[in-house]
Amino acid sequence: MRLQLAVFNRQDLALKSISECYDWEINIDYLTNEKSSFIPLSKMDFETGDFFMAKEIGSDNQGVIDSSIGEITTITPLFLGVIDSIENDAIKACIIYSLMNFPFAATRATGSATAGVSAESHLTNMFTMRVTLDLSKKTGLPITPKTHTAYSYLPSDPPTVTNLLDYVIGFFKKYNIVLDVDYLSRVAWYNRYNIVLKVERRTKKIRLKNNAYDFVNWSVYEQPAGKQAENMLQIIDKRSTNSIYPIILSTWYIDKYGELTQSLNDNIYTPTRQKIYIYDMEQEDRPTYLEVAQSELAGQTYAHEINFDIKKDNNMIDIDDLEVGLLVDIVYNDTIYSSVLTGYVISSESEFISLRFGHVRSTLQDVLNNL
Asked: Residue 189 pLDDT more than 80?
């Protein structure tokens, strides 16, 4: 597959440079912010932080990038991100959410599934204030919430210094909400482009089985909810004065199926791993105990890592359908895993696409211990 490459100026999105590419690897991982790699056929004009696009040459639905002046054109790229570095003639770029890789002061935040106060609206406002309207970030990308989901983010002692990218990933783990590129378009009669972003909860679901001929190199690593992470929460009154006998307001557990409960039962891994939340009874807008438990213990639903390769030319899943947050029921031998696509790799060197599912990123030792 031959790709067209384009570089856009970070500040005004003017087209700076175009080229073609035969040697490339698109490496998307929403949990770890991996770098994709492209070796252009000709020298390109760019700076670190510029926007970078790659699209398949010859695809009818992806538009055309050129330096001529013409009518407005909308493009759906194969990759659109931010240039991170150049290594051995290869341009390295990260996906668009890497614009949020910096710290901020996180406070408590909750909202309902209503426009203006939802999780998607919250992340939209966060991006707008921290990136779009911050002149030091040198970019003014517009962003729009497409769906609306209730949420809660309840640190026990705010404000806390938090990386904004980790904050966004946390919303993905808890609510399957993704910050992504909506579309790229050329401004009519100008050699300049628009990049429009979106925030949405992904709900599309498919089913895959490991007995399909097109699937190879299966690897399944399961870390059931609560097994190797905190699975017990004690909510402690801020007025407690005795460390041996604190005022325990409520106790919660998360079982191996990812369900919250207040009773210790056979579905909860023991010995437990405990978290503490300091609760301020004098706070006017204090959350419920359930909201605290959801905020502190949720996000372990997809506590596994499933990897396999699939042929680019297959009848089950199209490259255009690959998107982070795609929900999947994976039938592996006699077990059904409800999972989510969190990453994939497509390269010019392989006839296969590598798919990665689940919220766990295992080390070699983890895998060996699981055998």
From this structure: no
The position carrying tokens 């510029």 is 50
Q: Which residues are CB-neighbours of 252 under 8 A, at least 6 positions away?
A: 232, 233, 235, 260, 261, 262, 289, 293, 296, 297
Across the range 310-333, mean pLDDT stands at 86
Contacts 24+ apart (CB under 8 A), 237-244: 237/279, 237/281, 238/278, 238/279, 238/280, 238/281, 238/282, 239/281
149-158, 192-201, 212-221: which is most confident = 192-201
pLDDT at 51: 97
Q: Is the pLDDT of residue 226 over 60?
A: no
Mean per-residue pLDDT, 171-189: 89
What would the two tokens of residue 82 be? 């931010």
Q: Which of 120, 365, 86 is nearest to 223 (CA)?
A: 365
Interatomic CA distance for residues 337 and 333, integer angstroms: 10
Nearest to 351 by CA among 300, 321, 310, 322: 310
How wide is the angle at C-alpha 146 spanned by C-alphas 142 and 150, nearest 5°? 115
Long-range CB contact pairs, 86-89, < 8 A, 24+: 87/37, 89/39
Long-range contacts of 330-339 (CB under 8 A, 24+ apart): 330/207, 330/208, 330/209, 330/210, 330/306, 330/357, 331/207, 331/208, 331/209, 331/210, 332/210, 332/218, 332/220, 332/306, 333/210, 337/220, 337/222, 337/304, 337/306, 338/301, 338/302, 339/302, 339/304, 339/306
Lowest-confidence segment of 30-44, 121-135, 267-281 by average pLDDT: 267-281
Query: Cis bond leading into 246, ω under 30°?
Result: no
Full-model pTM? 0.85
User: Which residue has 């399957």 as its token pair?
Assistant: 176
In the predicted structure, residue 89 carries a pLDDT above the cut 70 = yes
Of the candidates 139, 3, 29, 174, the residue with the CA atom closest to the CA atom of residue 95: 29
Does residue 57 carry a pLDDT above 90? no
Residue 245, classed as helix, strand or coil, is: coil
